[in-house]
Amino acid sequence: MTRDRAQPRAPITWLSIVGYLLALVTALPILWMVLAAFRPKGDVFALTWPTNLTTENFTYVLTEVPFPVYLGNSALVSIVVTVIALFLHTMAGYALARLRFPGRGLAFGLVIATLLISLPVILVPLFMVTEVLGMVNTYAGLIVPSIFNAFGVFLLRQFYLSLPTDLEDAGRLDGCGHLRLYWHIVLPLSRPIMASLAVLFFLANWNSFVWPLTVAQDENLRVVQVGINSLQGQYGQDYQYVLAGSVLAAIPTVIVFLIGQRRIVDSLKTTGLK
After folding, report:
1. Using an 8 Å Cβ cutoff, are 142 and 230 in contact?
2. Which chain regions cross the lipid bilayer (predicted)?
C-alpha cells in the first residue's frame, strides 16, 4: 500500500494577502460590536481587551424596550414579502422568457430601468400613493410597496432562458396550458433560484430602514432597524443598548445567509452572472 504524495501548498500571492486584509477589515468591526455589546456602561469604547463582560445590556433591551415586537414585525414583513415576491416574480420572469406578446421587450426594458431609480427619488410620491390607499401605519403599507424587485425578475428571466424547453414541449403535447406548465414543470425546476432569491429578499427586507421609518410611525409597527435607531435617540449616549440591539438584529441575517450562501453562488453560476 503506497501513500499518496502530499499536495504542495499553494504559494501565498499578493492577491491572497489582499483578500486576507479585506477579510480582516470586514471582521474587526463585527468583532468589536459583539464585544462592546457585552461591556458595561462606561467601558464601551475602551481600547483594552474586555475582562468584565455582562449580559445586562441584552436583558435591558429585551425586557425594558419592546424590542421583541420590533423583531417580530421585521420577521413578519420579511417573510410575507419574500413569499409573495417569489410567487409573482417567477410568473413575471417566466412570461418575459417564454411567452411571445407585443411589447415584451419594452416591458422588460421598463423593469430593468427601475434599477436606475433609487428609493429616495420616489419616496414622496410613493408615500402619497400609500396615504391615498389608506395604508399608512399598517402592515400593508410596510409589505405591498416592498414586493416588487427588478433584480429578482431579471435573475429569474435569465434562469428560465437557460432552461431547455424539452419538458415544456412535452407538456404542451399532453395538452398543458401556460398555467399548468408554470405550476407543474417550471416552478419545480425553479427551486434552486427561488431559494437563493428567498435569501436575498429576506435580507433586503430585514435590513430595510428608510421606507419603514417613513410609512410606519406607530411604535407597534416598528421594524428592528427603526427600533435600533429609536434606541439611540431615546437613550442618548447609552450606546451599549444600541450595540446589543444591533447584535440581536444581526443574528437572524447571519443564520439565513449561512444557510443560503451556497444556493446564491450556484444560482449566479447558472444564470451566467458570476
Report:
1. no
2. 12-38, 75-97, 106-127, 139-160, 181-204, 239-259
